[in-house]
Design a protein that fits this description.
By secondary structure, this protein is mostly helical. It is built from 14 helices and no strands. α4 packs antiparallel against α5 and α7 (123-131) runs antiparallel to α8.
Length: 253
């Protein structure tokens, strides 16, 4: 590992913005100033290690920052996000939960906490986390996906329809709404949603996969083949492309 002390000078500069949302201490003392400077330096060094994908180093450096300022929600959140990136979902839920308990107005933290709970298999907890920021469209889409994964199709539809009305030009909503509509056996409405997603984002490959499945449900083999062909152009080599899209494509006349 790169000696961490040598990173202090650079770290203090690169991480100064991370302390912007820290509350001012009630009393400024030599000790509080020293701990704030130390925390800033460790956070900066940790951010550098994370960008370099030296994850073990980043965990250690953020941990040192947390020991300097254990009350900081920013450090807990950053550690939680790092664990989420590494798919350590239990650690991510613990740290992000700590962060939002101390500072509950950061939408990205609630969204990350929802993803962490999903990764850990806690769908109900994920939905609660998403719900705590109801104005955030990305969170609404994430919550809708959680509901679909839990088999709660009608609840997902109710949520996603409102989200689509509130933010009709948000690309991710319409593909997810199409999936929910298809799960409810409404192929015509699902197809409309997938087509809208394609208009907003021609690169959204799952919008084409969804449209292909909608046409299959309608019994239109020619249109299904057309949509699978467009999907494969956008994704030639993933497992889904090889095992689903290309097999379905070759099975259609």
């Amino acid at each position: 590992m790169t000696p961490v002390r040598s990173l202090f000078a650079v770290g203090a500069l690169t991480a100064s913005c991370l302390c912007a949302c820290e509350p001012e201490p009630p009393q400024v003392t030599t000790e509080t100033v020293a701990s704030a400077v130390e925390m800033t330096a460790w956070m900066g060094a940790g951010a550098m290690a994370q960008r370099s994908r030296r994850f073990e180093d980043a965990v250690e450096l953020y941990g040192r920052a947390q020991r300097a300022r254990p009350e900081s929600p920013v450090i807990a959140a950053q550690l939680g996000l790092l664990h989420l990136e590494r798919k350590n979902h239990e650690d991510a839920t613990r740290l992000l939960g700590d962060a939002v308990s101390k500072k509950d107005d950061v939408a990205a933290w609630w969204q990350a906490l929802g993803r962490a709970h999903e990764g850990a298999g806690g769908l109900e907890k994920a939905m609660k986390a998403y719900a705590l920021d109801p104005t955030n469209v990305d969170n609404q889409v994430g919550r809708g996906r959680s509901l679909l994964a839990a088999g709660k199709v009608e609840a997902a539809l109710a949520l996603l329809r409102v989200a689509a009305e509130d933010a009709p030009r948000t690309k991710s909503i319409h593909t997810t709404l199409g999936e929910a509509l298809l799960a409810s056996d409404d192929a015509d409405a699902a197809l409309e949603a997938f087509k809208r997603a394609q208009e907003l984002d021609p690169g959204d490959k799952m919008a084409f996969a969804g449209a292909a499945n909608a046409y299959a449900a309608k019994g239109d083999a020619a249109k299904e083949r057309e949509q699978w062909s467009k999907y494969v152009v956008r994704d030639c080599c993933s497992d889904y492309s090889k095992n689903v899209a290309q097999e379905r494509l070759s099975a259609r006349p």
